[in-house]
Specification:
Elements lengths: L5 H17 L4 H28 L1 E6 L2 E6 L1
Antiparallel strand pairs: 1-2
Length: about 70
Amino acid sequence: MEELSFEEALKRLETIVQKLEKGGFSLDESLKMFEEGITLFKFCNKKLDEAEHKIEKLVEKEGEIITEPL
């Protein structure tokens, strides 16, 4: 899973959701897609958490603009 980018994982997750919404799959096929979807969801969530920790805000202190963690 780590070889996927966030965008690739999100696109795959969207595809799985669309397929599951349409239906027409056996229980086993649906469960496999659901399991992959959960794995992709966790991967995307982890990437978002990592990005959130990198976000910085600009703060003006004593006439200088510096960055500090959000």
